[in-house]
# Entry
Amino acid sequence: MNSLFSQVANDKVLRTYLVRADAYMGKLGYTEHGIRHAGIVASGAMEVMSKLGYSEREAELAGVAGFLHDIGNAVSRENHSQVGAILASQLIRDLLLPEEMLDIMNAIGNHDEENGIPANPITAAVIISDKSDVHRERVRNPHTISFDIHDRVNYAVLNRDLIINPDRKEVILSLDVDTSSFEVVEYFEIFLSRMIMCKRAATVLGVSFKLLINNIQII
# Structure
């Protein structure tokens, strides 16, 4: 029997929503928000939950929420978190107990840094995983000369690693960055609110959050 996460991640209807959401985001000029991003956020959220001692089912719920967190972009970028939570409740509620569906809706509805609040571990895990997906693979624009700051910062990240260390009660986002193409201060210009949100999410999980850029602790 397929796991809950496998059922969701391989569902053709859900994948169509995510593909269309990403296409819409591309037309608006945003970095990649499609199947690749969904898979990375799901995997990271499940790893956070598993390594910090949460149950297999809770980890799966975090994975489902992570996979679907940007589904609302298929409708509109504005309020996409809340729209996505409602969409998910309509599309997968038959697979879940009511309280599980509510946990997933909470995680999707609160993942955005503009108005999200990490109120439970599943939401916190999704937030940390989502905000940690910074990488040049997300850049759509093939012309480096016309990069905006989001393209420039993402393109400069050569490698990212989300490290969960339960013994030291810490989660670390480690980035290998090509500083010849951007200044570190630019990272904070666009991502400071995201890093603050990660620190708040880590508190919900009972751990600290640290950011390393080229092996230097920034946060």
The mean pLDDT is 93. Residues 4-217 form a domain with the Hypothetical protein af1432 fold (CATH 1.10.3210).
